[in-house]
């Protein structure tokens, strides 16, 4: 299943997903736009030589360059096509039989008197069957003619891409009387002859005529829709043209979602250094482990010579030193990162395109809901949005987002709009959680900030290095990080207003509200001033973090989509904590949050709001318009959910431990899915076990969840070491981290230099 073979697979095997989507075996096919096709074929000459079936393929191919082309002109003559803007020439040459005149034309290209085409697509046979009434002599003559053409094609294959298109089967019931002698049995005999004779003299050489046999498979599924039983329906021809484009262009354009025929990217300098670092960590860990084992064994076997009895070991098994813990963590991380690299950068495992059906999204959703409800337990505390409840919330949202990604449900607008609310709800929790912490604890120390930043960013920084991706590529982490810093700045800037201070004097509450209004004003200004926003994030080295494809537009778009929801989270926390302080809500076990009457009214309004939002989101027709409204209205459904989940006492005092378990590793799940569950940077699906889609998803999901859980453990262990509580030690570590990032920027600049 190596990437080099994906060209073979693309040309010879695959299956249909649904009616019209062709899935090559083991790799992903890119859908080429006109601009990309032109970019790839600039200054190229392409020749299609053969019969009416090759003419069909020619028309589908040039429509990828210029969709306005009409199929007109005499069918039994040469047809030229030229795109002057990109100086591309594509010609169809009418040679319906493999005979002397076709041989002469091909020979002229090998002699250098005529310009050699860059791509040659040839094929013919049905005319020979028809003219000679399907006689065996015609087949013998075909074999002789192909034998004389084969060496010429093989010679051309050294410098050009040469494809021999095998004959598609026919739909015999639909053939007209004059074509009845063209049977599938005859076609198979002609195809067999072509495959056997082509490349027979150049078995070992790399230059080969590529046999385009996938068209046969496509025709078997779709020939019933043919208009005359001989020619392919249009959608199948277009698929063949797209396959041809992928075979030739993927190595030139290198689209992320076109893994067929793409060579493995070379290792960058930073990747090589990371590889050395992880290798040394593994070796270091093994050495320390061996030394400890030896010492332990020596101490254990020291015997008391006088009494001849064994003494108790002088020391118990050694305490794990900081260095050993560090090496152990990096050792595990190194092995995990190797798996990441093999899954999504080395061409070791296969990748396939996503294909959305309603059942592929909704059936797993029902399944996890049943599991979640099955594992319900009582919460330790019954406060609003207590720890277990927020973990549960993160958990089920994360699982729904994962199912959304693997099923390709983003193409279905109502689902897309609801998933947008889930992403917003994550940010709502960010606002709520961090505001509550700072407001109650009043701890604005460097230690707290560093702990949060480390836990959020550690995995992403490692992945940027190992997978050679920009920081902004994992857009959610930059988003949460920036919002955390905004919350911190809002509350830490003078005057620092915290609950302790405010409970003495009501004016402080107004002071805090003023701060929040200032924050809202800044958000509003930046969301309507793209220029100002881009200026802030285009400063070096900030630009290094927030640029994607050379500009910060993508970052502005992502930030703008959920710009108000963190503010809503902070405001909710402020109101809730103020009510709690004044004992205006009851949070006892089994008690409704307010008096029965008020609770019922609020509950009714919440349910209506929740459903109203869902109806609006489901009736959405235009993605852009709905995205414009989303930042202002997403809070309706989030607040409705929080109230429905917390007002009734019984509902507040139970939670799903199944969802909460996933909630604890939700960040790791979100980031890891990019490379070891999905593939090609989320555009496709990772295939560990080809041919068994359901079994493959089960196996890759199991590994993916285990890896995410392990990374969560590693991050927690390293956070203790890298971010210590002692301020002077912390300062030293911060200087080391600053040095590390300076080195990273330097190497990154060197890499960019060498790339250009």
UniProtKB/TrEMBL annotation:
UniProt domain Cas1p 10 TM acyl transferase: residue ranges: 254-734
UniProt domain NXPE C-terminal: residue ranges: 22-90
One Pfam family in the UniProt entry: Cas1_AcylT
Chief location of this protein within or outside the cell: Golgi
Location of the protein in the cell: Golgi apparatus membrane
Assigned EC number: 2.3.1.45
Enzyme class: transferase
Membrane topology: Multi-pass membrane protein
Enzymatic reactions: CMP-N-acetyl-beta-neuraminate + acetyl-CoA = CMP-N-acetyl-9-O-acetyl-beta-neuraminate + CoA; a ganglioside GD3 (d18:1(4E)) + acetyl-CoA = a ganglioside Ac-O-7-GD3(d18:1(4E)) + CoA; CMP-N-acetyl-beta-neuraminate + acetyl-CoA = CMP-N-acetyl-7-O-acetyl-beta-neuraminate + CoA
Keywords assigned by UniProt, alphabetized: Acyltransferase, Glycoprotein, Golgi apparatus, Membrane, Transferase, Transmembrane, Transmembrane helix
GO CC list: Golgi membrane
A GO molecular function held by the record: N-acetylneuraminate 9-O-acetyltransferase activity
Annotated transmembrane regions: 269-291, 355-375, 396-417, 452-468, 474-494, 506-526, 561-579, 600-617, 629-647, 659-679, 685-709, 730-750
GO biological process: one example: carbohydrate metabolic process
Alphabetical list of InterPro entries matching this protein: Cas1_AcylTrans_dom (IPR012419), NXPE4_C (IPR057106)
Protein family (similarity comment): Belongs to the PC-esterase family. CASD1 subfamily.
The protein's name: N-acetylneuraminate (7)9-O-acetyltransferase
Species of provenance: Baryphthengus martii
Gene of this entry: Casd1
